[in-house]
Task: structure prediction
Amino acid sequence: MLIQEVILENFMSYSYARVPFKSGVNVVCGPNGSGKSSLLLAISVALGQSYTERSKKLSDLIRWGKDQARVTLVLDNARRGKRRPVPKFNKDQIFLTRVLRRDGKYWFALENRAATKGDVERLLSKLGVDPDNMLIIMHQNMVEQFTVLSQQEKLRMVEAAVGLEPYRRNVLQARKKLTQILSQEESISKLLESAEQTLNYWREQYDRYQEKKQLLTKRGFLERELAWAEVARREKIVKELEANKKKEQAVLSQIEDETKTVKEHLQTQQNELEKLKDEWKTLFDERLSLERQKVRNESTISLCQQLLKETTILEEAIQSSGNPSFQTSQLKKEPSSTRFELLKSENLKELIQNSNQQLSKLNTKINENQERAENLDEEVEKVRSQVVDRRIQIALLQYREENVKTELKILERELMDAKTYLDEATRKAEQTGPKIAVIKSVAEILDEIRVTDGHLVALSDVSEDIERMYESYSKLYLELKEKAQLVAENREKALEEVKARMQAWRTVIQSLLDRVSLEYQKILAQAQAVGEVRLVNGHDIEAAGLEIRVGFKGGKPVPLDAYTQSGGERTTATISFLLALQQHVRSPFRAVDEYDIHMDPKNREIIAKMLVSTVKNANAQYVVITPSQITFAEKEANIITVQNVEGKSIIREVA
Result:
């Protein structure tokens, strides 16, 4: 039981009334306009309803001529076993009051203390009561409204009534989570796509940057290579100069050796020439001596011949003259010996002969001397020519020596400069890095440097910030990729969770509706009707709905709606469904207003009996508002009679 008593003050047609309720069925009956429905409306307003069929403003529910109305519910908080329904209030009764004022101000009170609507909702939640669910409190005309509700609305109303809303909430939360994950996945996918495009751009720039770095590295290596190539070139120059110097020194040594040899040969030849000169002089002296002897011999011969001739002439003259005095005078002119010799022609002839012989020998010696002299002249000329050649050779060697020495001085100077340049080039090269083997020429390296510089000019717009940007976007891309993977994993988990929760929801709903459908069929069978309750579109919780089917007078079951069945049939089917659901409704309080208005007496009696038995088995408090209590026995229900006397509703009889 939920409500022990309802206290009304200036509420609609009630000035003041106290209406006690009991567990089980409470039947509020009375003529039309007596205030039966107002009592249920008062209970609903006290439980927190803000909109009613009777009025769109709560202030319109205040009794005419009064400024304020008050409805108080005395709620049962007695212990059920070891605990109370609302442990916060350690008492058997809880007073819940709703105050309405004409100026439009409304408020709640719990235990005579102001309370918010949230406080009331939390209280009712603990008690399991939802006053806005027409399956809990079905006001007048709500039976007709229930039939026009969509299948989805009916299902959700059933879930709320039986306490299965958490299953739907779980599914919806899981689907919301899945939707959020899908939205997040889509967002991350877009971000990832954008990041990938941006990363591709920066990757291209990064590749260009890496190319530039490689070119700069290559440029540095080429500079290093160029420096060491210059060193190698300088070393080569030094080596060439040293080789040339050695070569020139060797040539100089050779020239000096040749000069020394030539000078030795010259000295030998000069000595030989001097010797030949001495020999020639000896021959000359000998020749002179021979010539003198020859001249003397020739003179002797000539003289002897002259003498011999004169003698002959004289002798002839003497002989021809016969003058002894002439002979005597000529003889006086010559010395005695000469004359004596001359006088001896025989001696003269002998002398001439001897002189000719001597002359012949002298001529032979002179010829020999001349021949020897000529030979000696040839030898002298030859030796002199050799001496001249040696001197020319020496002069040439000296000239060559001077040239070689000059060349050596130039080479030494060039070598010194080359070594200086080599040292300088080596120092510069060492600044670029350790020595490397160079196989290219300086010109080739310079050409390669020019080509590299051309490529670097093309990459001049590439800055060092590109690497940072690329690393930043790479990191962002990887993070997004990881997030995308994580979101994908979460999506799979969420899908599994949705499936699991959907399966759990479908299982409990299907189980509930299967049992309700069986009970519904039993109740309809007593009214000579058939029907079923089933879940439709169970694969989609948003589209899922409750379909109530009913068939009267042997007809096949068709969906319950506002057009197919008559008013009585709709009411019978709806109340049958409510009764079939009762044992599953968790609210300890239920109410229905004038459910039987369109029923025939037979169905009204059948439904009344079913209502009593169902509520009795459900251990719940049920308020039934009906124009007549004839269908309920006093022993089966708590009968409350309401009458209106002079515009004031009065509780006349409580049985």
Q: What stands out?
A: The radius of gyration is 80 Å.
